[in-house]
Design goal:
269 residues; mainly alpha; MetI-like fold; 71% helix; 0% strand; globular; disordered C terminus
Length: 269
Amino acid sequence: MKPKYFAIPYVVWMAIFVVAPIIFVIVFAFTTPDGYPTLQNFAAMGRFTNIFIRSFWLAFVATAICILIGYPIAYILSREGPRLQKLMLMLIILPMWMNFLLRTYAWMSILENTGLLNRFLSFVGLPTLNIINTPTAVVIGMVYNFLPFMILPIYSVIVKIDQSLYEAAQDLGANNVTVFRKVVFPVSLPGVLSGVMMVFVPAVSTFVITQLLGGGMVMMLGDLIEMHFLGTAYNPQLGSAIALVMMFVVIIFMYLVNRFGGEEKVVTA
């Protein structure tokens, strides 16, 4: 049997579960419920402008926080010994072995008004916080769930930098800050951009986090699409149009990341 025939199951799988749903979305987006061609579905999206803005803004905030937290962790981790690196990587990946829904429920018990956080604040005599069912809770949930997707790409790039490159820069008179600014950060940019893509894309389309931690009070694009396909505002044509626009924006974002991100390289002296 020729090797190319082994690809047939994969091609069939992709055709059924990837290509076909996209075709249905495109057809629904450009037709009426009676099947006639129309652009009215896209024209009706204007009333959801605030949801588009909120979705991209919260996804941007969550991505920025993931960079601020994930980059130092990835850098420090890459400078440790192999044994500690393996242990820390296991601890970073370990929460991902638990169901996404259960992890989000756990944050509900922490952030709710009578949750663990407010109980601790009351115990130490501090005022309680009203975080649950707010955009802040949604951002916290996104950062927690997607942070590993920021740490791992950055770590995978930094750890490949040859140690002799650090030593050469220091021999030429560069201090630690200069080495980081001139060597580490420019080399790690492909990892940062990969992490941005892996965090921003699921963040902008999430709906489980918004429903549980936002309590239905913080609607994002994922909620809007789900509502038009499964909710009371059943309108798969409009939902498909929204999904198609979001897909188009995400494709542009991914193209820009790939265009300016370059390839990950092993850097040696």
